[in-house]
Each structure stands twice: as C-alpha cells, then as structure tokens.
Amino acid sequence: MSAESSNKTGLDALEKRLSEDLSLLELPAKSWVPARQYNGAPVRDVVVIGGGMCGLAATAKLILSGIDNVVAYDAAPAGLEGPWVTFARMETLRSPKTLHGPALGLPQLTFRAWFTAQWGAEAWASLDKIPKNQWMDYLIWYRQVLALPVRNNVRMTGISAAGDLIALDLDGAESSRVYTRHLVLATGRSGLGGFAVPEFLQGVDRSLWSHSADDIDFTALRGKRLAVIGAGASSMDNAAAALESGAGSVDLLIRRKEMPRINKMTGIGSQGVVHGMHLLPDAWKWKFVDYTNTTQTPPPRSSTLRVSRHANARFLLNCGIKTVNEEAGELLIDTTQGPLRYDFLVAATGFTNDFNGRPEFAAIAPHIRTWADGRYTPEMGAPRPGMLASPDLGPGFEFRERISGSCPMLAKIHCFNDAAMLTHGKVSGDIPAVSAGADRLVRGIASALFADDVDTHFASLVAYDIPELLGDEWTDSTPQLQKDNAL
Ligand SMILES: Cc1cc2nc3c(=O)[nH]c(=O)nc-3n(C[C@H](O)[C@H](O)[C@H](O)COP(=O)(O)OP(=O)(O)OC[C@H]3O[C@@H](n4cnc5c(N)ncnc54)[C@H](O)[C@@H]3O)c2cc1C
C-alpha cells in the first residue's frame, strides 16, 4: 500500500470515528430556530463573515447547537483564508502541537487526531512544531469533514438595518443583499481596522515600503538593503524571508533597549484565565492587557535564530525612528542611533481596531461604543490609545451602542475576532482557547434567538399535542374508592 493510500485509509477511519462520536452525543442538535422571511426573501439565523479559524469554529458550533440556517462568507479563495499560506512567513506555528484549538471538545476533530490518522503515532512523537502550511491543510479538512457552509470569493461590503434584521451587501462570487438575524464578524486581526502604520511612514511612497501583512515579492529585494521595524514574531519572519531570498542586508530597527524575552500570558495560561478573565472587574482586565502590552511578547526563539544565523543581519536595539524620507530613490531614516539608508522597509507594526478605516463598517462605526466611552476610568492605569479603541462588548461578544437607541442592530452584531480581547480575554483570535470562545459566542446567540422568538416557542408549547400516555396505561380507582367509603 502506498503512503498516500495508507494516509487516506487512516483519514477515512478517523472520519468514521468522528461521525460515531457525533452520533453518540446527538450532534448536530435538532434544528430549533423558527424560519423567517423579509419581504418574501429568506432570512438567515446567523451570517458569519470570515472563514478563517474563528469563523470555522463559530459556524461549526452554531450548527452543532441546532442553529443551522447559517452561512459563512470569505473574500479569499478556498484554502487561502487567514494568514497561514498568504502572509505568514514563519516556518511553524508558535503554539505547541498539542493544543486542541478549534476542536470544540471533540477528540477526533483535533489536529493531533488528523495528523496521527495519516502519519502515525511515531511521526507525531517526532513532530516538533506544526508547519504552518500543514495547519492550513488541517483547517481545510475541518471545514470539509463538518461540511461547513462556507462560500469563498465573497466580500461583505456593507451593513445596514432592515427592520429588526441586518442587511448585508455582498460582492464577488455572490453579489447580492442577504438578510440575517445575527451577524458574526470573524474577520481576523486586520479585519476591523487594518494595518497599524506609524506616523513617520504616512506619506512615504508605497513603492519603498510594505506592511508585514502585504503580499511582498521578496525576490525583488535580492541584493537590496532592507530595514524591518519591530522585534516581534512578524519582524523576524519577514527578515528571515528576505534573507533567505538573497537580500543584501537586513537591519531590524528595534526601539527597545532589550529584546522582550518572556512570553508572559502563555506562561500563566490556564482554564482559569480562559473562563475567568471576562468576568473580572474592568480594572483587572485593563491591568492584565496593559501589562502584557508593555512587557511585549517575544518572537519565538527559532524565528530569531532563523535571522541571526545570517551574517548580513543586524539587530539594532535602542534604535527609535524619528523620520523617514525618500532621497534620490532610497530611504533616509533618521534614528536615535543616527542616519541610516535603505532601499526598502518592512513595517511589522501590527494591526489597529479603528473601524473607521473600513468601508464595510461605515454604517456602524460611529455608533460602536469603545472602552474610551466610559468603560475606561483613569484609576485603571495609563490611557493607552490602542486599548481605548477596543470595542466595549456584551457577554455574547455583541457590540454596544455609543448612544442608546442610535443603532439597535449592534446588539446582534458579534465581534468574534482579536478586537474582543480586552473585554473577553484571548478567546477569539489565537488557537489555544478558540473553542471556549465559540462556545461563549453561541450561548449568547442561542439565548438571544430564543428570547426573541419566545412568543413562538410558547405558542409551540401550547399547541404541542402528541400524547406520551395513550390512556390505556392505568385505570381510575376513585369510583371504587367512593363505593368502598359508602359502605
Ligand atoms: C503571521 C501570524 C502567525 C500566527 N501564528 C499563531 C500561532 O502560532 N499560534 C496562535 O495561537 N495564533 C497565531 N496567530 C494568531 C491567530 O491564530 C491567527 O491570526 C488566526 O488566523 C486567527 O483566525 P481568525 O479566523 O480570527 O482570522 P483569519 O484567519 O485572519 O480569518 C479572517 C478571514 O476573514 C476574511 N474577511 C475579512 N473581512 C472580510 C469581508 N469584509 N468579507 C469577507 N471576508 C472577510 C478574510 O479573508 C480572512 O480569511 C498568528 C497570526 C498571524 C498573523
């Protein structure tokens, strides 16, 4: 038997076990949400925007919970959702291979089960970290084995209210308007705001710099002098990709005097953090996020070594950037260490939650309540702009209105992405706790849908008339008792 067919046999067996487990657990649960129409058009119970890891986990959890009139849309072609095989330039995931990620409590749905079914326990034991492309292959299988209704090449371009429903404008493979009762924004790290671009890069010609999440042609940088801003994982990955493609030199321009070395939040990771963080008083939430933002997450050791093994790579610490100017087709960067000249720059400067930068959110952006709108108070600590811009979410990840009554549909729009972190902890962005996040999200949506339809559910209760007892199971002994008493 070839390795390929033995992998296929292993995967078939896994899929059979998964199907048996689902049957034992009576999953998916029976469909229970009453159908709705809007002016004759069908209405979805939930539309999920984004078919990356969070979108898949949310869609799967909804369907398993009997909310099955659901669809997910993703602007990317199938198999290219999220960063993994597009702009992620690391070799492996940072996360340990054992994380059960989006498996939703189903052992046969884990990466480990998928991997071992195909390559065996020995290969699993010798696997160090998960290659990023393999993680994407796993997510493709996850979607396929659960038959998740994801439609690719469809971009959501606009949100508006339609009575008590939400109307979504779609563009691409499906260009139409669809109606939904709830909307989940599983739009990823760049999906609420976009790239965070420092002030000193505003106005600099885009032919001379890229953001680390851009589609960068590294072969075009062969022999060139490259600057990479930042000391995080993406800085290392982009620097390494450039060096491996033959860049002439790569300087990492790092404002800090020291590299961050300790991955603090991973260090204290526990089910307490997963389930307890979102219930803490706001001051504690602020304190945790502020502390970890200040101490920063180090780049993985392997990614850092992937850069430092090149003699033409330099780590320039304590090197803050004052200005960036174009001079005769090259970049002149004035730094706290003096002037430096480059041919190209990569800004590994992360993402922002500023909804105002995204046209598809134009209708809701001005109404979204953020932590700056009263949830933050100065006693919590310094007013960090990035944190103040975080949406102030409800218990089911739903947005809240800045001014009561100004945009009621926000209560049915759920922010299931990285921007939820300050309110909900890290359960809607990274791999470790995404199943817990999907569970919390779906509980919120299920209870809202149930409450919204309570009249219908009560009417169903009253109308339900299928007897469990047929009347032949007992006889009424009262007449005999009355006779006995009369004697
Ligand atoms: C380079 C990189 C490496 C990472 N490595 C790790 C790691 O090792 N471990 C870990 O735990 N986490 C890691 N993460 C963090 C996290 O796991 C990933 O960001 C992950 O992709 C989050 O999944 P997501 O579904 O939230 O977003 P994404 O995977 O980014 O998916 C969002 C999807 O939404 C779609 N979309 C956005 N807007 C629209 C729209 N208007 N219409 C239609 N579709 C839209 C996009 O096309 C995209 O496919 C990494 C992140 C990055 C960027």
Automatic annotation (TrEMBL):
<dbReference type="InterPro" id="IPR036188">
    <property type="entry name" value="FAD/NAD-bd_sf"/>
</dbReference>
<dbReference type="InterPro" id="IPR050982">
    <property type="entry name" value="Auxin_biosynth/cation_transpt"/>
</dbReference>
<dbReference type="GO" id="GO:0004497">
    <property type="term" value="F:monooxygenase activity"/>
</dbReference>
<protein>
    <submittedName>
        <fullName>SidA/IucD/PvdA family monooxygenase</fullName>
    </submittedName>
</protein>
<keyword id="KW-0503">Monooxygenase</keyword>
<keyword id="KW-0560">Oxidoreductase</keyword>
<dbReference type="Pfam" id="PF13738">
    <property type="entry name" value="Pyr_redox_3"/>
</dbReference>
